[in-house]
Design brief:
The complex is a heterodimer of chains A (about 200) and B (about 300). Chain A has a single domain, classed as Up-down Bundle (Ferritin), CATH 1.20.1260. Helices cover about 60% and strands about 0% of the residues of chain A. Chain A has helices at about 15-40, 50-70, 80-90, 100-120, 135-160, 165-190. Residues about 200-204 of chain A have low confidence and may be disordered. With about 300 residues, chain B is an alpha/beta fold. Chain B folds into 2 domains: about 1-125 and about 195-290, Alpha/Beta hydrolase fold, catalytic domain (Rossmann fold, 3-Layer(aba) Sandwich), CATH 3.40.50.1820; about 130-190. Chain B contains 10 helices and 10 strands. Chain B has helices spanning about 40-45, 70-85, 95-110, 125-155, 160, 170-180, 180-190, 220-230, 245-250, 250-265; strands spanning about 1-5, 10-15, 25, 50-55, 90-95, 115-120, 210-215, 235-240, 275-280, 290. A 10-stranded mixed β-sheet of chain B has the order 1-2-4-3-5-6-7-8-9-10, sandwiched between helices. Chain B is globular, with a radius of gyration of 18 Å. The chains are: A mainly alpha (about 200), B alpha/beta (about 300).
Chain lengths: ~200, ~300
C-alpha cells in the first residue's frame, strides 16, 4: 500500500477518484468547524476572542470553497455513506469534568478543531512528482499550511490559564478527538489504497 | 519496528549490534528522527558497540502527545530504553535538545551510565538562546515546519555542506518534514516554557564526560559548553574544527570516531577529563591536540587568557 496519492497522470495530477474522496473529507471536516464557529458567534463582536473566532470561521469557509473549486470531481457511489459517517463524528462529544456548559462547549469545538488542524496533513500525501501548478496539489498544500496557523488559536485556548485546573481532562478529551479524527482519515485513505504512515493505531 | 510503553504513549526504538557489547544510546535533536543516526550505528557497530536509537516523544514514529510534552517524560522514556540494555556499560550521547535530555538523565540516573557525551548542548537559557528559541518557535508557528527547517539548516551547517545540496534542499528536508508534525514540534519547543537551569545539578554528574562543541556554533556557543566543562568534574571539552551546531549531520565519520575512542578510553580506564580543552582532528582517526596553553578558548581571536 502506498503512502502517497497516485499513481499520478502524465501531467503530475492526482487521479480524480482520489481527489474526490480526499476533498469530500476535508470539506466535511472544515465545513463542520465552520458551522460550529458560526453558531458560536454573535452578530456583533463583544470580546477580543470573538475576533479570532470570526477569522477562524472565514478561514474554514475559504478551505471549503477552495476544495470545491480546485477538485476534479468524479462520481463516487460510496460518498453518501462515507459523508454521513463523517458528519456524525463531528457532533459535539462529552467533556468529562467540566460542569460549566459554556466552557465545555468551547473545549469540545476547540478539541475538534485541534484534531482537524493538527492531525490531518493532506500535503504529506503528495508525492514529490506532483505538479506544483495543479490546483488540487496547490489546494492541499494551502489547507495544510493554513491549518497550522489556525491551530494556534486552539493551542492558546487549550493550554491557557482558564483550563489549567482541568488540564488532565482536557488532554484526555483532545487525545480522544485526535484518535477519532485520524481513524476516519486513515480509513478514508485506506479505501483509496493509501497507508497513512503517521497513524498511531497502525503501530504493532 | 519496536516500541516501549510510557504510560499511554509508545516510544519507537531500535537496538542493533551484539547484545553483550557496551552500548551507545543516541538522542535526537529537536527536528530529527532516529534514522539520522544510521552512519553512527554502522560505524559504532563496526567498532564493537551495541547501538540504541529512538524517537523522542513527539518525534518521528513515537507517539505525539497532543498538548503537553514534559522533559521529565522524555527522561523517563529514555530510562525505559536504557533498562532494555541489561547490565553492561552504557554510554549516552545526545545532540542539542537531545543533549539536554541526556544531561537531565545523567543528573537523575548517572550511576547507570559509564560515560556521557553532550553535543551542541546547554544547561541554561541565557538571553541570546532564549530569544533565538522564541524566534524559532515563532518561525514554526508562522511558516510551518518547512520554514523552521530553513532557519535551522542555514544556521547549523556549513557552506561546504550546503553548497552541493542547495538545488535539492526540498529533498533534504522532506523526510524530516514528513515524519515530524508541526504541533508536536511546537509542544517540544514549549517544553522550555517551564525550563529551569541545570547548572547547579551538573557537579553531581560523576561519570566521564566528553563535551563536543562545533567551532562555529552560534546557536549554542562555546560559553554554554564551558559551563558544562567547569561544572562536571570528570569532563573535557572537545572543539570540532570548522563545525556548526549540527555537526553530527555534517561530520558523522569524525564524530562517531570520537564517540568510539571516548568509550574505549573509559572502558580501558585511560580517560582523564581534567576539565581540559581539546581540539578535535579534521578527519576521523587524527590526533586530538590540547587547546594552546595560555590562550582563551572562549574567544574567536587569539587572545591570552587573563591570569586569575
Amino acid at each position: 500500500m502506498s503512502k502517497f496519492l497516485g499513481p499520478l497522470d502524465l501531467d503530475g495530477r492526482v487521479p480524480p477518484q482520489q481527489q474526490t474522496r480526499v476533498s469530500a473529507f476535508l470539506i466535511s471536516a472544515h465545513g463542520a468547524l465552520g458551522r460550529r464557529f458560526a453558531l458560536s458567534l454573535p452578530m456583533r463582536l463583544e470580546s477580543a476572542w470573538q475576533t479570532e473566532l470570526n477569522a477562524q470561521l472565514y478561514n474554514e469557509v475559504e478551505i471549503v470553497s477552495l476544495m470545491m473549486r480546485a477538485t476534479s470531481w468524479a462520481p463516487d457511489l460510496a460518498l453518501g455513506y462515507l459523508a454521513a459517517s463523517w458528519e456524525i463524528a463531528w457532533f459535539p462529544g462529552p467533556t468529562e469534568g467540566l460542569s460549566d456548559h459554556a466552557l465545555a462547549a468551547a473545549v469540545d469545538v476547540a478539541t475538534l478543531a485541534h484534531a482537524v488542524h493538527a492531525g490531518i496533513r493532506p500535503a504529506a500525501l503528495l508525492p514529490v512528482e506532483a505538479n506544483a501548478n495543479d490546483p488540487f496539489v496547490m489546494a492541499l498544500r494551502r489547507v495544510e499550511f493554513e491549518s497550522g496557523r489556525l491551530l494556534q488559536a486552539q493551542i492558546m485556548f487549550l493550554k491557557g490559564d482558564s483550563l489549567v485546573p482541568f488540564r488532565d481532562g482536557v488532554s484526555a478529551v483532545l487525545e480522544r478527538r485526535h484518535l477519532q479524527v485520524r481513524k476516519l482519515w486513515r480509513e478514508m485513505l485506506q479505501s483509496l489504497g493509501i497507508a497513512d504512515g503517521t497513524e498511531i493505531e497502525a503501530k504493532p | 519496528m519496536a516500541f516501549l510503553a510510557h504510560g499511554p504513549y509508545r516510544i519507537r526504538y531500535e537496538l542493533d549490534g551484539p547484545s553483550g557489547a557496551p552500548a551507545y544510546v543516541l538522542v535526537n535533536g529537536l527536528t530529527q528522527y532516529a534514522e539520522l543516526w544510521t552512519a553512527y550505528r554502522d560505524a559504532l557497530i563496526g567498532r564493537g558497540f551495541r547501538v540504541a536509537t529512538f524517537d523522542l516523544l513527539g518525534q518521528g514514529e513515537s507517539d505525539k502527545p497532543t498538548l503537553f510534552i514534559s522533559q521529565d517524560d522524555q527522561v523517563a522514556a529514555l530510562h525505559l530504553l536504557i533498562c532494555e540494555l541489561g547490565d553492561g556499560p552504557v554510554f549516552l550521547s545526545g545532540i542539542s535538545f537531545g543533549g539536554l535530555i541526556a544531561l537531565r538523565y545523567a543528573t537523575a540516573h548517572g550511576q547507570r551510565l559509564s560515560g556521557l557525551v553532550p553535543m551542541s548542548c546547554f544547561a541554561e537559557l541565557p538571553p541570546q538562546l532564549f530569544l533565538l528559541g522564541n524566534a524559532l518557535r515563532a518561525g514554526l508557528i508562522l511558516g510551518g515546519t518547512s520554514y523552521l527547517q530553513d532557519l535551522l539548516l542555514s544556521m547549523n551547517v556549513s557552506d561546504a555542506w550546503l553548497a552541493p545540496v542547495l538545488d535539492r534542499l526540498d529533498a533534504v528536508k522532506r523526510q524530516g518534514w514528513l515524519v515530524n508534525d508541526m504541533y508536536a514540534l511546537q509542544n517540544l519547543m514549549e517544553s522550555f516554557l517551564e525550563f529551569k537551569p541545570l547548572t547547579q545539578q551538573l557537579p553531581a554528574i560523576g561519570i566521564p564526560t566528553m563535551i563536543l562543541n562545533g567551532e562555529f556554533d552560534f546557536l549554542t556557543p562555546r560559553a554554554l559548553h564551558d559551563t558544562l566543562r567547569i561544572q562536571i568534574p570528570n569532563s573535557s571539552l572537545v572543539i570540532i574544527p570548522r563545525a556548526y551546531h549540527a555537526f553530527t549531520l555534517e561530520k558523522p565519520a569524525l564524530t562517531a570516531d570520537l564517540l568510539a575512542r571516548f568509550a574505549d578510553d573509559v572502558l580501558a580506564e585511560r580517560w582523564q577529563g581534567n576539565k581540559a580543552v581539546w581540539i578535535a582532528p579534521e578527519e576521523a582517526g587524527g590526533d586530538l591536540v590540547p587547546f594552546p596553553d595560555g590562550y582563551d578558548h572562549l574567544r574567536a581571536i587569539p587572545v591570552r587568557r587573563a591570569t586569575p
